[in-house]
Amino acid sequence: MTPNETLSLKCKHCGKETVFNQPYVYHAGFSDQGFLYNDAGTLSLVWNLFDPLLEELFPGERLWTQGRANRQRFEKLLQPAPAGGRWRFRNPARCMHCASPISGPMLKTVHYLVYPGSIVTDADQQLRLKDYLILPPDSSVLSPSKQGC
């Protein structure tokens, strides 16, 4: 890894630095991505906003994250984060040393950080958002209207 591939952020609270394996803070809008942080704020889940699964889950709703009910439904479908806890739209990115917020949640910023051990479903065609949902292996993903809810 060269110095150009890392980003170091100094926490305003404790003054310690957290190093990320990315050249700059990513802009979700420029790359058509969504992101969430886990409850601890030290892991990221990143997905492509045009993932076919999202159309299946939220048919005809291009901006599905604007509705609170849709956001909660999506959060509940996600498997727990690898380090424990849940992925939530309200979780900010946090300092690895003191747990103070160092960047806002998806609802407040378009910029995001990718922590070591994070899940980026869009970076490798073998990793898909569908692989991180809580569904039986033979289940098809249906919207509430198709399930009769």
Average of pLDDT: 86
**SS strand fraction:** 15-25%
Tell me the major beta sheet: 4 strands, mixed
Task: Label the overall shape.
Answer: globular
- State the assembly state of the protein chains: single chain
Structural class: alpha+beta
Low-confidence stretches: 142-149
Order of strands across the main sheet: 6-4-5-10
Q: N-to-C terminal Cα separation, in Å?
A: 50 Å
Q: Cα-atom Rg, whole angstroms?
A: 16 Å
Polypeptide structure, described:
The protein is an alpha+beta fold. It has one domain (3-123). 13% of the residues lie in helices and 21% in strands. The chain is built from 3 helices and 10 strands. The strands form 4 sheets. It has a 4-stranded mixed beta sheet with strand order 6-4-5-10, with helices on one face.
Task: Briefly characterize the structure.
With 149 residues, the protein is α+β, with helices and mostly antiparallel strands. It is built from 3 helices and 10 strands, in the order βββββααβββββα.
